[in-house]
Each structure stands twice: as structure tokens, then as C-alpha cells.
Design goal:
The complex is a heterotetramer, with two copies of chain A (about 400 residues) and two copies of chain B (about 140 residues).
Chain A (H helix, E strand, L loop, with lengths): L6 H6 L7 E2 L2 E2 L1 E2 L10 H14 L9 H21 L7 E4 L2 H16 L5 E5 L8 H10 L3 E4 L9 H7 L4 E7 L11 H10 L3 E5 L11 H4 L3 E5 L10 E5 L1 H6 L10 E5 L2 E4 L13 H17 L1 H20 L4 E4 L8 E6 L4 H10 L2 E2 L1 E3 L4 H7 L4 E5 L6 H18 L1
Parallel strand pairs in A: 3-15, 5-6, 5-7, 7-8, 8-9
Antiparallel strand pairs in A: 1-2, 4-10, 9-10, 11-12, 13-14, 14-17, 16-17
Helix pairs in contact in A: 2-10, 3-10, 4-5, 10-11, 11-14, 12-14
Chain B lengths: L2 H13 L4 H14 L13 E3 L4 E9 L2 E8 L2 H14 L4 H6 L3 H5 L14 H18 L1
Antiparallel strand pairs in B: 1-2, 2-3
Classes of the chains: A alpha/beta (about 400), B alpha+beta (about 140).
The structure holds pyridoxal-5'-phosphate (2 copies).
């Protein structure tokens, strides 16, 4: 394990970072949308297709055996990575959205009744907001919304006020994709559990920045996506406590999730297969396994320290720009910055910043409710990870100065 | 001037720019000349809501010609809206229905008309053609 | 376009075919489970991750634009490939199972009522059987089952008898994954439409063997998986008629499928995005696009002709083996053979055949109802495609002789 | 003989085979020696249904020892079941609970014990240990 972070060498692992965009070296600051992949992950996928590709489970032949072993081994590694108690508490999904929808369907629609209440926060990504809103409308389950303060932090006291004996589920983000605020979820989970409230955490923006321990957190469900943590697209995780997963009905039907089928009726396979209908995306899961190894090899401490330095440097530099305003100013923040430049529209700013070779995201970041709260139509978001550099931040500052020159 | 002539004129205007910055600066200027939609027509009904920027579009029909006015909250969107209004305004429904927006590609602004970019411009063009169709049927 | 099929050169495109298993060159006859990938497809994926990777849609920056264009371009190509009328009739899913479940949820649960009836066949893969069985139980919708004759063909006259004014949906396979029978679905579709019955076709085993035309077939839904047609795992297609898709509610919630979200309520995006929640698997779709190009380049006629020759050769050779019995003897058959060797258990046979370096599938092939019908616990299935050879069939025959020697 | 001794004995028996075919032929032979489950115990309750093959398992407890009988519809599964029965039968609940199945790996049949292979053998081992546990608590 490297004792500190050698960004120059790390960048060599990421082929996509060495491109030119409009004749300028690419600066990739759209990591919260999706991360680039290290060659180790790409090579793992190639190896899979060149040497192992096979439909897994239940096959008696060599390749099937080998691919199944690799796949189930990945499940064990992911279990250890998040410190889940049981291997079968790791359910493979398409991504965070799929994971949340699974819980909405197999837990929410099944066990929540009219009159029960669900609590979310105003800072949720649509993927952890709309499913509950739809459930709320369909089953007449009031949706309670935790507000944020001016720094963009979930207000714990307001959450406490929303809690009552009707509350059955709390679904909140670990880290806001728009404001960057890291929520002290342990505090929310403990409080919720005092009232026997089941807790789902959207970890899509958290799990790549800091070592996770679901047993310590004691959350009931935890969701995340592979593609946001240096793994291929199309793979995600739902962690759920065995006790809950056991009693939930399947989400989709067909393939591996079935035990016995007769024209009279069907019995379902055990965990985790019960929730994994259809041919699984083996490639994406093996890639995720490899990505986790890659991160562990760099070391989560090193990553966290370096990303904090990037965040501090960028914050300082950006705040020096006249008229620039940062949304989300919690002390406990992931390395992403949402900002506005005076009255300049994010679309205008984004267009020019792009022309300068820098990929940032503009718009509502699939989190309209919290932008409504701050009364802005959108922001510019620069999200940085361990392969970004201080020089890249300087280039962003330059680009912003250019934007100001053109639109002010 | 026909739609085609106006489009060619715009292509010529843009051909003088050597770098993207001059082009965008000119676009920003053009935005300022956009015949602005009357505040009273800036209604919810006339709003085209993209997820990146918003566009308002209004149309009047007189003497077999349609006159468009528009606005946007983003300056670049406004500049492109100005180009579209300039080309499509003061034309008959038929010529609008049959017109294309090739000139936008040619002057290197194609990306702003991507259907998934969601800045309101693609919907604006669709809306302009719908107006033309509606006025034609009425006429 | 090649005028006929040059298998020697084609095999060079498939790295996975050039492996040794237990010291013997691999014979891959498990193509109905999943196919191997040509290097063109693998290279497309690598290119994506090295040069284009990005979260698509709504991004204003260069990479996002480029990836979005490639993605939407793939949608258009797939539309043309199956000859759908509209681009937005192509919905990207995880695979066939996901596609069928989408229709089960957004059409079945929404528009079918207690007392309505659904017709499936006994030859369905579990993925097109269990969803309807579960719906049937949940909503009290009788499930009618089309039987097969001794050749393993769906009996059209029996289907006609099952049809009545209560029938609302017919969900049948285009090609049976266990028996190989190709169903004359046009006949079933026309008959069903006479009674205003909506028709879903499971094309998982059909679309890689023969050129498809959904407008000519006039089916209402058509489902297939990328990984069974030389494309990466994790991508599939649901084709649906606009008229039906328009009125169906979303399947999952979050991300791209949303239009406006406020804490008061949410409006949904238009087709096809309405059904595509969460970050899409761009890589899998670009890979599918490339796989289709690869197939078109070889030519579907060439593929069909060659695969027919393989099937005829294998059938002839296998039938010469004493005690060998083929399940599924329709004249109109895909290039797969399910068989039993005397009283030898498929597991025993499969284990030995594997040791001889040949990958076949044994067991119930996720199609238990039809095996119950034939009163066998499972079969051995060899499924062949255009990269297989006559010599490989000879090796299978040898392996079967070995099995007989050991167990008879 | 202890479980460990029996396992070692099996390893020695298998070490004489040079190729897989001899090994499987021997396994087929062993299947024939499996103490077959009495037809009257071949009940649904004693059935372990894998999706590849099926296994029946029965257990009796006498004098602090468990005796297993079994059967399978597949010959190879039966051979491996025979090995498991030979090692685990005539042992005390405690030794069964603590035993492992390393010897199966060592003689190169590991693949048949893969939890996802679904031939009934993994569940058979689980079931043997559950019997041991049950008899122990009863004792
Ligand atoms: C006929 C048929 N339908 C459905 C499926 C399910 O496809 P998938 O596992 O890719 O969802 C398969 C393949 O396993 C199949 O052969
Ligand atoms: C906080 C948060 N939740 C959920 C999601 C949805 O993830 P995915 O699109 O991978 O399903 C995202 C990313 O877009 C996110 O940032």
C-alpha cells in the first residue's frame, strides 16, 4: 500500500484523462456524474470476455464454473469491503436507482400501509426522492421532508420533529450530490431506530471517498453504483439486513431467482439470488471487484486526505473570484463544489468552461427540490477526485475569469 | 429574403470568425438584438422548459407571414434563439414547415441543438413549426 | 458484405474460442446461454472507456455530448435493425427478463383486471412465464397455457380454443431455448389481434439467428438480450408500440426519466426516457450496436444457412448414436439440440462431456414446465452458432461415446 | 477410524489415478457401494432437490454415533455422496459438526461442491451437519 498519493503515477492508470478536448488537455471535473476507469478495471473486463465469459450459476462446464466462482468471490469481497455480516446481504443491481426502486417495491409496497409515514430529505437525488413520492401518492403515505440549513446541512432537530409513531421509513443520502454535504447518518440512524424506523441510505456519492462499515452504521439498507467508483457501468449494490431481505418478496421474476417452477406455482430461490432475476452483469461486478481493489491499494485514508486538500484549495481559489457564490458550505463536505458566478446563467458558464477543455456539470443535477429551496434554477458543479490536480483547479479559475469577461 | 438566403447570410457572417471565442461573443451580441417577447406574453403557456435553460416563444400571424418573438434566461440560448427568429420570422407557414436548420450545424453550433441537451432550443424549433402548421390550417 | 461464411476467419474474431480447457481446445456449445464476443465488440467497449466515458444526457460538456450522440445513434441503429417505426419505441433495459418484467408491471399490473385472462405457452423460459404466473396469482387473472405437441411445437388449434373475449394478453416465445422450435408467431399475432389481444414476444433466442421486422410481425412488444447476440452483458431491448408505451406508467423512478420534480409532485419525461431510470449502461448499448454491425456484415442469410447446415449435420450424427433421444424435433428449428443419452443422467453426461473440453448445458434450462411436459428432469443442450464447426460436432459425438462407455 | 483418518485414506486411494477418467470410473464404482437409503425413507422430506441432480439423505442415531444412508439420481453425485457418507457415518455428532470437506478438494472434485452448482451435494453436507446438531441437542 502506498503511504501517500502519487497523483502523477495514478493518472497514468486512467487512459481517458489523457485526451485533448478542443485542442486542450481535458480537465475532468464531472466525477460525481461518473468516474473514469483505471486500466486495471478495463483490463479485468477484457480478460473476462477473452477468457471467462459465460452464463454463470448452474452450469456444470468449466467456464461456467470459473465465471461463477469469480462472481461469487466478488460478492464476498464486496461484503468485506462494506463489512456486511453475511455474503447474501449483498444484492447485485444495475445501480443506485435500481437498488432504491427494489426497496420501494419489495419493501415499501409490501409493508407500508396508508397512514404510515416516510421521511426523506430535501437534498435527495431524484433517485431517492421520486420513488418515495410515487409510493406516497399511490398508497396515501404522507412524505415528510427534512429541510436543510443555509450551509446545506440536513437539520437534525427538524428530523426529530418529523419522527412519530407513524413513521416507518427514513430514506436519506449519505452525501449530497449537489451540495457536497456529508450527512452524519449514524446520528439519524440511531434516532430512527429508537422509533423502530427502517433506514435506507443512498450512498452513491459516499462510498468512493471513505471506508464504509454498514454494521457500525447499523443502517437497514445501503445503496450505491459501480460506475461512480471507477467500475464499469451497469452494476450496483443493494446491501440489506438479512432479516428484512428474507421477508421481502422478489422484485423481478425469471431466471436464477426461481427455485421450482410448475404450471401450478413457483417457489423462489434463497438470498441473494431471490432478488437477482435474469442473467447477471458478470462483467460489471468483476469490474467493481477490481475497482475496489484498486482503491484499497491506494488507501482510503490517502484518498480522503488528498481530496480534502483539493477541496480546500479549490474553495479558497473560487471564493477569491468576485461575485462567485458557493452552494453548500458545510464543514463536512465531499470534494465537490456547486457554484454560481454572479448572475451568469449556468448554461452560459458551462458552455464557455467546456470550450476551455474542462468538463463540469451544469443544471439541476437531478436534485430539483434542493435547488428550489435555494431558489436557483441550477448551478455549475465541479466534482474532484484523487486523480485531479491543483493545476487543473487553476485552469478552472482561468476559465471562470473568461466567463466573467464574456458575460459581465 | 427567403429563409435560404437568410441562412446563407448568417453562414457568411460567422465564417469571418477564426476562433470560438469571437463566435460566442458575436452570439452574445446577437442575443441583444432578439425581438423580445412582450412581457405580457411571457406566460407559462409560452414557456419551453429545458433542464439547462428556459425559452419563451410567441408568434403572430399577419398577411400570410408569421412574426416570432422570444426570450431565454441564458444568453447563449438567447443568441441562438435570435438566429432562429431571424431566419423563420416574416415567412409564410409553408416555408417554415419545410425549412431545415442546417445553417446552425454549418456555423458550428450544432451541439446546442442536440435533442438531449435539454436547453429548450429543439423544442423551440418544434414549436415554431407547430405554429406554422396551426396558422396554415386556420388560413 | 461477405457472400458466404468463412468460419476460419470468423473464429479469429473471437478470442474466447481459442482457449484450452483441461488441455483440450475448447468447444463452446453453450451459445443459447450466452455467446462469446468478437474483438470488434470488445474494442468498442475499450474505446468507450478510454475516450468517451461519461454520464450522458443533459451534460453540456464535450464528452457528455459525444457519448450521448453515440448512445442515441445506437438507438436509431437498433430501431432500423428491427425495423421499428419510431426511435422512441426502443427502450433500453438490462435484458429480456427486465423487459418482460417492465411490461408485467407497467402494462399488466396497470391495465389488466381480475377476470381478464393471459395466455402463455408451456415452452416459455421462466423469464416469460413466472412474471405472468405471479401477476395471475396477485390479481386473480387466470393463466392459460398453450401446450406443445410431441415435436415440441406450440399447438395453434389449442391456442385458438384458449382465446376468448376475456383474453387480454398473449406472451409467447419466438424460439424455445430448450426445444429449439421456432414459433410461427405471425400466425399467433394475427389471430390474437382479431380478438384485440396485446401480444408480447420473447425474442431472446430468435433475434441473433434471423433478420427481424417488428412492423411486419405487428407484435405489440418484443424483448431480447444483448449478451445472447455477441454483445456485452447488461444491455437489452424492449420494443413496444408507441401507442401502448405512451399510456403505460413508468417502471422505475429516478434520474433521466424525470421531467420536473418539486416537493409537491413530479412529471415524467417523454418516451423513451420515461422508462429508463438511472444512469444507463452506455457501454452495453454501444457494444450491442457494434455487435449488430458485425452480424450485418456477415449477413443474416449467410448465418442462417450455415447454422442450418450445422444443425442438420449434428442431428444426423447424434441420431446415429444408439439410445440417444432428441427433445424438440420441429422442422423449423434454431441450431440447438436438447438430448438425452439412454437412461444416463444429464449431470453425469455433462460432467464427462465437460472433461472432454466441451461446454454444453445440462439441467432444466430455466424451462421446467416444458420438461415436466416431456417427463424428463433435464436434458443436455448443445447450442451452435456461426462460429462453430463440423469438427466440433464430431468431438461432441466422441464425447458422447465416452459417456456411454462409462455409464452404460 | 476418525473422520480425519478416513479422509486421508480416501486421498490415498485417489492419489493412484493419473487421469480424470480413471478417477471418475472409480467414483462410479464407489457410488455402487453407497449404503442406499431404504425405499420407505425416500420421502419428499428426505429429498434435497438441486437443479442438476437430486439427493436423498437419511440419518439414524445409535450409541452416540450417526449412521447415514443416501441416494442420488445421478451416478457421479452418488459417488461423491458415497464418499461423504463413508467419512461422516459412524461418527459422533460433535466430530461431524467440526469436520470439514477438504479431502474433496484434495482429490480434485471440488467443483462438485460449488454452492451454485446446484447438484444437491452442498445441501447434503449442510443437512448432515444439521442432523448432527439436532441429535446432539437431543442427547
Ligand atoms: C427464451 C429466453 N427468454 C428469456 C431469457 C432470459 O434472458 P436474460 O437472462 O438475458 O434476461 C432467456 C435466456 O436465458 C431465454 O433463452
Ligand atoms: C446521490 C445520488 N443518488 C443516486 C444517484 C443515481 O445513481 P445511478 O444513476 O447510478 O442509479 C446519483 C447519481 O446520479 C447520486 O448522485
Amino acid at each position: 500500500m502506498a503511504s501517500s498519493l502519487d497523483v502523477k503515477n495514478i493518472r497514468k492508470d486512467f487512459p481517458a484523462l489523457h485526451q485533448e478536448i478542443y485542442g486542450k488537455p481535458l480537465v475532468y471535473f464531472d466525477n460525481a456524474a461518473t468516474t473514469q476507469k483505471p486500466r486495471q478495471v478495463i483490463e479485468r473486463m477484457i480478460k473476462y470476455y477473452e477468457e471467462e465469459n459465460c452464463n454463470i450459476h448452474r452450469g456444470v462446464h468449466y467456464l461456467s464454473q470459473k465465471a461463477t466462482e469469480a462472481f461469487e468471490n466478488a460478492r464476498r469481497n464486496i461484503q468485506q469491503f462494506i463489512n456486511a455480516k453475511e455474503t447474501h446481504e449483498i444484492i447485485f443491481t444495475k445501480g443506485t436507482t435500481d437498488s432504491v426502486n427494489l426497496v420501494k417495491t419489495s419493501f415499501g409496497e409490501e409493508f407500508l400501509q396508508a397512514g404510515d409515514e416516510v421521511i426523506v430529505s430535501v437534498a435527495e437525488h431524484h433517485s431517492n426522492f421520486v420513488p418515495w413520492q410515487v409510493l406516497s401518492e399511490k398508497k396515501n403515505i404522507p412524505l415528510r421532508i427534512i429541510p436543510v440549513n443555509d450551509k446545506g446541512e440536513l437539520i437534525f432537530e427538524e428530523f426529530e420533529k418529523l419522527l412519530n409513531e407513524k413513521t416507518k421509513l427514513l430514506a436519506i443520502t449519505h452525501t449530497s450530490n449537489t451540495l457536497g454535504s456529508i450527512v452524519d447518518i449514524k446520528k439519524f440512524i440511531d434516532k430512527a431506530h429508537e422509533h423502530d424506523v427502517v433506514v435506507l441510505i443512498d450512498g452513491a456519492q459516499a462510498v468512493m471517498h471513505k471506508q464504509l462499515d454498514v454494521q457500525e452504521l447499523d443502517c437497514d439498507f445501503y445503496c450505491f453504483s459501480g460506475h461512480k467508483m471507477y467500475a464499469p457501468m451497469g452494476g450496483g449494490i443493494l446491501y440489506g439486513k438479512e432479516k428484512l431481505l428474507e421477508k421481502m418478496p422478489p422484485f423481478q421474476y425469471g431466471g436464477e431467482m426461481v427455485d421450482q417452477v410448475t404450471i401450478k406455482g413457483t417457489s423462489f430461490n434463497e438470498l441473494p439470488f431471490k432478488f437477482e432475476a435474469g442473467t447477471p452483469n458478470v462483467e460489471a461486478i468483476l469490474g467493481l471487484d477490481e475497482a475496489i481493489k484498486y482503491l484499497q491499494n491506494i488507501g482510503f485514508d490517502n484518498i480522503a486526505k488528498y481530496e480534502k486538500r483539493l477541496l480546500d484549495y479549490a474553495t479558497e481559489k473560487l471564493l477569491k473570484i468576485e461575485g462567485l457564490r458557493i452552494l453548500g458550505t458545510s464543514e463536512n463536505k465531499a470534494s465537490l463544489i456547486s457554484f454560481l458566478i454572479g448572475d451568469i446563467h449556468p448554461y452560459d458558464a458551462g458552455t464557455i468552461i467546456d470550450k476551455m477543455g474542462i468538463a463540469v456539470r451544469t443544471g439541476h443535477h437531478c436534485a430539483q427540490p434542493v435547488l428550489d429551496h435555494f431558489e436557483v434554477p441550477g448551478t455549475i458543479r465541479a466534482s474532484m477526485v484523487f486523480y485531479n490536480t491543483f493545476e487543473e483547479i487553476d485552469r478552472l479559475v482561468e476559465a471562470i475569469m473568461q466567463v466573467k469577461k464574456m458575460f459581465e | 429574403m427567403s429563409i435560404q438566403e437568410k441562412a446563407t447570410q448568417i453562414e457568411e457572417e460567422f465564417s469571418q470568425f477564426e476562433d470560438w471565442m469571437d463566435k460566442y461573443n458575436y452570439l452574445i451580441e446577437l442575443g441583444k438584438d432578439l425581438p423580445l417577447i412582450d412581457e405580457k406574453h411571457k406566460t407559462k403557456q409560452n414557456l419551453i422548459s429545458g433542464c439547462q435553460s428556459r425559452v419563451w416563444l410567441h408568434a403572430v400571424y399577419e398577411d400570410d407571414k408569421i412574426q416570432f418573438t422570444a426570450d431565454s434566461d441564458a444568453v447563449i440560448t438567447k443568441g441562438i434563439a435570435a438566429l432562429l427568429v431571424r431566419v423563420f420570422s416574416d415567412e409564410s407557414p409553408d416555408s417554415i414547415i419545410n425549412a431545415d436548420t442546417e445553417f446552425i450545424d454549418k456555423i458550428g453550433l450544432k451541439e446546442h441543438l442536440s435533442p438531449t441537451r435539454s436547453n429548450g432550443l429543439m423544442s423551440m424549433i418544434k414549436q415554431m413549426k407547430l405554429y406554422a402548421l396551426a396558422f396554415k390550417t386556420k388560413a
